[in-house]
Specification:
Rossmann fold, two-stranded parallel ribbon, 7 helices, 9 strands
Length: 201
């Protein structure tokens, strides 16, 4: 099974969750576009304990930590969804997007166009903060408008049951995992959440 990991914004916890789901499924990992350093592939790889997951090299590593369309422009690279093929693997594959769903990769296409083009389900990571209900529901509405299949939602960070409940009520999606605010992110923490996630996939 392939899953595309996206979020309601930058730094919502996509890479952490990507490590967790890779650990849960012993899946391979691929970040098609990396804009700036450090590389998320290195971060995810550093959190995995299993020996089955493989880290597939990015198609593009752009030098500037910015929106992919702008970072690609600086590097004189043309990004188009049609030029991206899912890597061949006998394993499950976790694909991590860049930023949120409407981050542009060129003047016409957005990150959300990848799972639509590949016809694979999305898992949405939402971190909770003042304003996150609005951002999450707007993201969900766009996913629904475009007909993108969504496997479920992952909440990351300090819990807010009221916010979580209203997001789940209006989305109709299931909560796959709640990642608490941890003092340290390490192999043991990733394995703990991987075990929880297995029950809901």
């Amino acid at each position: 099974m392939n899953y595309f990991i996206t979020a309601i914004g930058t730094d919502s916890g996509k890479s952490l969750f990507s490590a967790i789901i890779c650990e849960a499924l012993e899946a391979d990992y691929w970040k098609p576009i990396q804009a700036g350093y450090p590389r998320d592939t290195d971060y995810v790889g550093g959190l995995l304990s299993n020996l089955k997951s493989e880290l597939i090299p990015e198609k593009y590593v752009l030098n500037t930590p910015a929106s992919p369309h702008y970072a690609a422009e600086i590097d004189n690279i043309k990004l188009e969804v049609v030029d991206f093929d899912i890597p061949k693997t006998e394993n499950d594959l976790i694909i991590e997007g860049a930023g949120g769903v409407l981050v542009p990769i060129n003047n016409k296409e957005f990150v959300i166009d990848f799972p639509k083009h590949w016809n694979i389900p999305v898992i949405l990571v939402a971190n909770l903060y003042l304003g996150s209900i609005n951002h999450t529901l707007l993201t969900i509405n766009e996913l629904k408008r475009r007909g993108v299949e969504v496997k479920g939602i992952v909440f990351n960070g300090p819990s807010n049951p009221s916010s979580e409940d209203i997001i789940l009520k209006h989305s109709g999606y299931n909560c796959l995992l709640r990642i608490k605010e941890e003092k340290e992110i390490n192999h043991a923490v990733v394995r703990k959440y991987a075990a929880e996630l297995k029950k809901n996939l």
